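Priority: medium. Attachment 1 of 2:
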């Protein structure tokens, strides 16, 4: 799989590289190691197609498995007023690939809405409480909740 490591901050590129070579170590990421305070978090690798480049772009993202065939991720971008690029890429091309630990899946992304969105948001905020602060930081932007169906 092609990679975008040259365009990523070093700590993200290192996480992707570790995930690919030692998924057991990288699956549960210690966010405190890069200055975070949330502790150990479950992460998956999302590989989406760049909407401009057409090339695969891989990023580690916090997730929660909510059903046998569904994983949920949050397009928070740390509460920035704009959506993350990976989310825009999924809007343009919802077919993607995920790696969860040692398991690999082709997936299709969709945006949760209504009660489903609220339920999944609450579940992810339990996994990573800073999402609650990000909601306020994002201002008028509703932070998308993305369901990856395998």
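Attachment 2 of 2:
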């Amino acid at each position: 799989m092609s990679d975008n490591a040259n365009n990523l901050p070093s700590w993200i590129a290192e996480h992707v590289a570790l995930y690919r070579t030692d998924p057991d170590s990288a699956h549960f990421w210690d966010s405190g190691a890069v200055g975070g305070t949330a502790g150990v978090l479950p992460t998956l690798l999302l590989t989406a197609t760049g909407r401009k480049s057409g090339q695969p772009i891989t990023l580690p993202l916090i997730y929660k498995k909510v059903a046998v065939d569904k994983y949920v991720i949050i397009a928070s971008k740390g509460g920035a007023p704009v959506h993350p690029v990976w989310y825009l890429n999924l809007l343009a091309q919802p077919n993607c690939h995920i790696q969860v630990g040692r398991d690999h899946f082709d997936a299709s992304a969709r945006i949760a809405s209504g009660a489903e969105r609220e339920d999944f948001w609450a579940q992810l905020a339990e996994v990573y409480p800073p999402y609650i602060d990000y909601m306020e930081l994002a201002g008028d932007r509703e932070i998308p909740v993305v369901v990856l169906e395998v």
